[in-house]
């Protein structure tokens, strides 16, 4: 049976207000996560995340639907569902960012779940889990670095 969840704990050397902006504001999301974004961060908003892949020079775009926004501690969205479809537990994994203040730093608990519930063959779900598990490792490090850099920008 395919794994259902990917979880990461990311400790960031920046206060929660900065990390919140980095995770939810499009101009910051493109600094650590996507190459392009078309999305208003409000419940039920729909949009797209895009990536440019090198050296193949191909573009990847995924649909996104915001689930919940509770500033400054929680943000979630469903994504990766087919064009023209309504996002659901059967076609769109759920990504959740929970932020916990820790003095001048922030702990982000990142979860992507619902992979086992997708209406896809098990081998595709296994591949999705492996690809996204590796991807969240990379993205988590980029988030940690970018958000800490924004702390310096805010102070300057």
Sheet with most strands: strand arrangement: 1-7-6-5-4-3-2
- Total domains: 1
Number of helices: 3
CATH architecture: 2-Layer Sandwich
What's the pLDDT, averaged over the residues?
94
Determine and state the CATH class.
Answer: Alpha Beta
Distance between the termini: 50 Å
Class from secondary-structure proportions: alpha+beta
What CATH calls the topology is Alpha-D-Glucose-1,6-Bisphosphate, Chain A, domain 4
Order of helices and strands: EHHEEEEEEH
Shape: globular
Largest pleated sheet? 7 strands, antiparallel
Q: Could you tell me the number of beta strands?
A: 7
Portion in strands? 35-45%
Please identify which CATH superfamily we are dealing with.
START domain
What does this structure look like?
This protein has helices at about 15-25, 25-30, 120-155, and strands at about 5-10, 35-40, 45-55, 60-70, 75-80, 95-100, 105-115. The protein is an alpha+beta fold and about 160 residues long. It has one domain: Alpha-D-Glucose-1,6-Bisphosphate, Chain A, domain 4 (2-Layer Sandwich). The chain has a 7-stranded antiparallel beta sheet. Strand 4 and strand 5 (about 75-80) form a beta hairpin. Helix 1 packs across helix 2 (about 25-30). The chain is globular, with a radius of gyration of 16 Å.
């Amino acid at each position: 049976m395919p794994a259902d969840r990917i979880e990461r704990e990311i400790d960031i050397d920046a206060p929660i207000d900065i990390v919140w902006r980095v995770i939810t504001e499009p101009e910051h999301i493109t600094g650590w996560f996507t190459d392009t974004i078309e999305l208003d961060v409000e419940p039920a908003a729909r949009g797209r995340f895009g990536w440019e892949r090198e050296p193949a020079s191909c573009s990847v775009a995924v649909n996104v639907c915001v689930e919940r926004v509770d500033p400054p501690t929680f943000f979630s969205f469903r994504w990766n569902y087919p064009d023209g479809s309504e996002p659901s537990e059967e076609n769109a994994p759920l990504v959740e960012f929970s932020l916990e203040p820790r003095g001048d730093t922030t702990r982000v608990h990142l979860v992507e779940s619902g992979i086992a519930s997708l209406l896809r063959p098990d081998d595709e779900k296994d591949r999705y889990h492996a690809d996204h598990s590796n991807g969240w490792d990379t993205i988590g490090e980029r988030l940690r670095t970018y958000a800490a850099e924004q702390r310096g920008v805010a102070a300057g």
